Amino acid sequence: MTRRLLLLLASASIAATAQAQTAPATTAADAPAPADDSDAQSSGIADIVVTARRTSEAAQTIPLAISVFGGQQLADTNVQGIENIAQQTPNFFVQTSSADPTGVLLTIRGQSQQDSILTIESPIGVYVDGINYIRSSNLETALTDVERVEVLRGPQGTLFGKNTTGGAINITTRQPDLDAIGGYVKLSAATHDRYGATGVLNLPLIDDVLGVRILAQRIEDGSLGVNGLGDGIGGKKQTAFRTNWLFKPNDSVTWAISADYTRTRGDAPVSKLAFVSPFPSPAPGTPNPAPALIDIAISQGILDPALLADPEGNAAAIGAALGQAHALFTGLVGRRGFYDNDATGAQGSYARTYGVSSNLAVELTPTLSFRSITAARWLKRWLDVDLDSSPFTLLEAELASRAKNLSQEFQFSGEIGDRVDWITGVYFNEETGRDFSRATALGTINATNPNITDGFVKNSSWAAFGQLIVDLTDSVRFTGGLRWTKESKELRSFNRSSGGAVCNIPPALQLGGTCQARFKDSFSDYSYLASLDWTIQPGILVYARTARGFKGGGQNLRGTGTADSFAAFAPEVVTDYEVGAKADFLDRRLRINVALFQANYSDIQRTIVQASPGGAIVSLVTNAARARIRGAEAEITAVPVDGLTLSGGFGVNDAKYLDFTDVTGDRSNEPFQFPKYSYRLGATYSTPTGAGDLRLSVDWNWRSATQLVGSAIYRDSLRQPAYGLLGARIALDIDSINSEIAVFGTNLTNRHYAVSGVQFDNSLGFNTLYAGEPRVIGLQLTTRFGGG
After folding, report:
1. Which residue has the higher pLDDT, 623 or 225?
2. How far apart are the first and last CA of the chain?
3. Angstrom distance (rounded) from CA 513 to CA 503
4. What is the pLDDT of residue 23?
């Protein structure tokens, strides 16, 4: 399949090259202002126009912490996914979800997503062309053929709504050029049997009025290792399509319509058995003996289960058998290659996402505009996973979910005189879906297997908002905004065990004596923003801002056995204070942006994993009381000589619980799940040659030691030591054939590191880790035609 695909696209590339030699290279006159950092003036650093406040502004004039990446910078730093964006951004951290390998769990400034199930939402909003992507599966397509990516740090609740307590990611894809046919074909091949093919075609259907931009992409990533059955793990195959339509019947109306589809089939993620609890375990809060050891001892014929009838009288024999099981289990830790494991359970993943959207903008008068943003998105995913990564049936699960999301936003914006800009609007969102899982825990000794979680979910949200910017003087501005949100969360649960024979819903919660329960909760809250900024002189801005945001509450999908396990969790609230400065010096050859912040964080949603009374392993969400997060961020860009750009960033994120007590006890000393320190250094040099421009890029990013699961009892087993990743790219434009050839590399030092972990030391007696990307070196060929 791969060879046929590459041959087909290679033929298309040759044909495109022939056309490129005669077709004029033009740009989209009606496209938004370019965000491509390669357009920087030879005398200094260019401004990038962004839409972080739902209007077009230069990033350096906005009083908030924002990192912006143009299309060329994304290519220079080998960005493929959101996790690569995080590596370039201060205080932005991404973890892999154990429940969805195609999705990610996002953290900005300490606001973290805890899970990927439908009853839990992310504190980081992801927006693609103005549309909120509630779920993070298959985001790679949104980062293909992209104009720019904006990362907004701190609460953005006034304009972007709830679930942006940590920040927002605003992605703008390339829109059609209404003047000229164009496009490109991009082919890549890399180590680990990685192949990619992308084709983009731009077609103006009616000159200056109607056009379409079509994207098709195929990615095949080979497996990184093998499991205990010899099957590959860590690979995937992804197919994606996107069409962007643009209709401009006159100067007052712009209508953008988009449709996208992405399907990903993958191996299991690369998980590792990282730790087995000691036997006996001396740590409070750990089972003694660990249930995993009992299961292994019986399944391997080491322990006669009849001895358990008299544990005191048979203590010596039982202890000896469990000691042998412990030696057998611990012998699996680290015994295979870093990207291999011993799992023998069913493994594989699938995710399909697709959607349509409409963004209609009408200039009603010179000082009044209207915008309607409408979207519908669908998600279907499943995962078979062996969570213990061993040859024993300690915890295996089948996960599946589907969801439909509908949203509508109306905006009015305008000006009052020369000193006031305003925007107001209303927003509605409804998500419906089903989340299902079938888990087998302790397959030899647990008679209640399998445990079934089955929930039908309906999440609805309504909001009204307004914001204004007032020029108090020619150099001082005030920005104020307010948003009111009301949301409804509904769950119909059919949780059961023993293959469905036993109902896991307490009788008091059952409807009509049947194995189902209905939970419905409503939450409402407000978000606000107030900021003051002062342009001391052209190119130097200082500001102070405060913002409040909240992340919605919900129900515990995985409740089992007791009424408490089904208890709703409340929204979490963040009030943020920030001061910052943005400055250009030396005729715009040096840019320094800095920010200091403190976030007061209350009712924090946290996940705990524990054993239910029936023996099933359940993950529940609870609210922590209070925390404070302090930090600092700096981003520096310099152009010491024409053609050379140096850049760097630094982040400090100091988080501390002030009060955290739940059903497991006092957790106030628990660490947060993100690095305290991070920095990056980068350099790009561009110079003309006889063939075309040559670009050399190198990038280094580093993170301090990170506790991947804060609630782990044996913390060192789920602690990732400090590490850095080195990447580079060399690209040469060949003007005679309108092409570019590039050699790229990521993780060039081949550093082994973990991106997430799962804790079972408080329930089964072990912990697992998920491996990060290995070293990848590849070759990429891009051929453009027409406007590109």
Report:
1. 225
2. 27
3. 10
4. 33
Give me the pLDDT at residue 101, please. 81
Q: What residues does 740 pair with on adjacent strands?
A: 733, 782
Q: Give the Cα separation of 262 and 80 in Å (integer).
A: 15
Using CA atoms in the order 269, 274, 280, 286, what is the torsion angle rounded to 10 degrees? -60
- Structure-token match 């164009």, residue found: 182
Structure-block tokens of residue 50 = 């962004």
Return the minimum-mean-pLDDT range out of 44-58, 86-100, 390-404: 44-58
CA distances from 306 to 95, 298, 309, 310 (A): 44, 10, 6, 8
The predicted structure's pLDDT at residue 624: 76
Type of residue numbered 243: T
Tens digit of each residue's pLDDT (9 = 90 or more) over 28-54: 333 334 444 444 444 588 888 888 787
pLDDT beyond 60 at 11: no
Contact present, 74 and 138 (Cβ < 8 Å):
no
Average pLDDT over all residues of the chain:
91
Q: What angle do CA 755, 391, 316 make, to 5 degrees?
A: 110
Contacts of 169 (CB under 8 A, 6+ apart): 82, 85, 106, 124, 125, 126, 127, 149, 150, 151, 152
SS3 683: strand
- What single-letter amino acid sits at 227? N
pLDDT in tens, 349-383: 999 999 999 999 999 999 999 999 999 999 999 99
Angstrom distance (rounded) from CA 592 to CA 610: 47
Cα gap 328→393, rounded to integer Å: 14
Helix axes 315-330, 291-299, angle to 10 degrees: 90
Buried b (16+ CB within 10 A) or exposed e, 660-684: beeeeeebeebbbbbbbbbbbbbbb
Q: Hey, what amino acid is at 560?
A: T
The reported pTM is 0.91
Whole-angstrom distance, CA of residue 291 vs CA of residue 327:
15
pLDDT in tens, 758-780: 999 999 999 999 999 999 999 99
DSSP symbol at 432: E
Which secondary structure element, helix H or strand E, spans residue 339, and what is its range?
none
How far is CA 419 from its chain centroid? Answer: 38
212, two tokens: 């379409």
Give the containing element (helix H, strand E) for 294: helix 291-299
CA distance 652 to 636: 15
Count of all residues that appear for the chain in the document: 788
Extended strands (E) in 586-722: 590-602, 605-611, 617-623, 626-638, 644-659, 661-662, 665-666, 677-688, 693-703, 706-707, 719-720
Query: For the segment 711-726, what is each residue's pLDDT rounded down to a tens digit?
Result: 999 999 999 999 999 9
What's the gap between Cα 106 and its chain centre?
5
